[in-house]
Design brief:
Largest sheet: none
Radius of gyration: 21 Å
Strand content: under 5%
Helix content: over 70%
Shape: globular
CATH class of the domain at 1-106: Mainly Alpha
Order of helices and strands: HHHHHHHHHHHHHHHHHHH
Length: 364
């Protein structure tokens, strides 16, 4: 498979041009089938513009030809691209339509794919319970039928469970995903993402030495072999682990590098997440102005991309900064807004914030 991906890298421009050529010269089926075959490679390596262009062209060709199968398949992967680009409404529109077409056609395999992507989009929108429902339904369909898809879905279930504070369940899903990745022989960078997530779960479980050891190895691997999104993710998680260990300078170095990498590939949801964590490190280092600038930027990005969970995290961090700066009114306001969002999202941060609000009100 690695040899095939090397060929795709060499011929990427020609393959993208072939999708357009087929659409323009009356071969819609060839257009959408080639776009479908390129989806995995383009998405994994962060070639978002090519991913978007090929699938928009292929969808137009399928619609013009009245090809419902082509429409259904292409909407599925176009929806996932819109998800990556933080265009949640476009993603949902395409995925709901794809799911409808797959169910009408009785295509359980493609229905499973649409359910999985809906799980991703709903997760990004902060609809975590709904996302977990879609994802578990897709896992049930994939289990015993499609090892690769089950692995990917279990990895995503692990991410949802992590946000919901259910770390033991998250760990079990990640571990199962890694076993399945090894079984199916996917490229090493795919398994690497699940291992990065295991490191983050170790941190959340308080197993900091295990988290540090694993993530340091993964950062070195990703820096040597890529792809860039993996390196950004690994450095981000390692930076958070160094912060938890009290190694602020090391945390700052890793998070700064992660932010730069996230910006090179245009992953705005990762950028907003890293900015919040960088702000926290600057706060703990006593640099409140830098922290306020970074977290404020994170909030602006999260609002623009409709990432409600990241909005809540940014509001929580801003509240802590205002509290540290001696502005209890601003701190209370931001914590109340964060609390309302975390409560709506069903995440455990709400329980942590409630007593802080109570303490501030009592002190005023």
């Amino acid at each position: 498979m690695e040899q095939a991906e090397a060929w795709q890298e060499t011929e990427r421009a020609s393959l993208v041009a072939a999708v357009v050529f087929a659409a323009d010269h009356g071969h819609p089926e060839h257009s959408w089938q080639l776009a479908e075959s390129l989806h995995g490679y383009l998405s994994r390596h962060g070639y978002v513009e090519d991913w978007l262009r090929t699938h928009q062209v292929a969808l137009g060709a399928a619609l013009a030809a009245g090809d419902r199968a082509g429409e259904a398949v292409t909407r599925t992967y176009l929806g996932s691209c819109y998800m990556f680009l933080d265009r949640g409404e476009d993603a949902l529109d395409n995925l709901y339509r794809a799911l409808e077409l797959h169910r009408q056609a009785g295509n359980r395999n493609l229905e499973t794919g649409a359910l999985g992507f809906l799980g991703y989009v709903c997760g990004r929108a902060g609809r975590f319970a709904e996302a977990l429902e879609y994802t578990r339904l897709a896992i049930g369909y994939a289990s015993g039928r499609d090892v690769q898809r089950e692995a990917l879905l279990r990895e995503h279930a692990g991410k949802l469970l992590t946000v919901l504070g259910r770390f033991d369940e998250a760990f079990d899903n990640y571990e199962r995903a890694i076993v399945l990745y090894r079984e199916v022989g996917l490229p090493s960078d795919v398994q690497q993402l699940a291992e990065i997530c295991v490191g983050d779960v170790y941190r959340n479980m308080g197993r900091l030495d295990e988290a540090r050891e694993l993530l340091e190895r993964l950062v070195a691997d990703a820096a040597d072999h890529g792809p860039v999104p993996n390196e950004a993710n690994a450095r981000h998680r390692l930076g958070n682990t160094y912060w938890a260990l009290g190694r602020l300078d090391d945390a700052l170095a890793q998070l700064t590098e992660a932010l730069g990498l996230a910006r090179t590939v245009g992953v705005f949801f990762t950028e907003s997440e890293v900015l919040v964590d960088l702000g926290v490190v600057h706060r703990d280092a006593g640099r409140l102005e830098e922290a306020l600038d970074m977290v404020g930027e994170a909030l602006t990005l999260a609002v623009a991309t409709k990432e409600r969970y990241q909005q809540a995290r940014a509001l929580d961090a801003l509240a802590g900064l205002h509290d540290r700066a001696g502005h209890p009114d601003l701190a209370e306001d931001h914590w109340r807004r964060a609390y309302d969002l975390f409560t709506e999202l069903g995440t455990p941060e709400a329980d942590r914030i409630r007593p802080r609000i109570t303490a501030l009100v009592s002190a005023l």
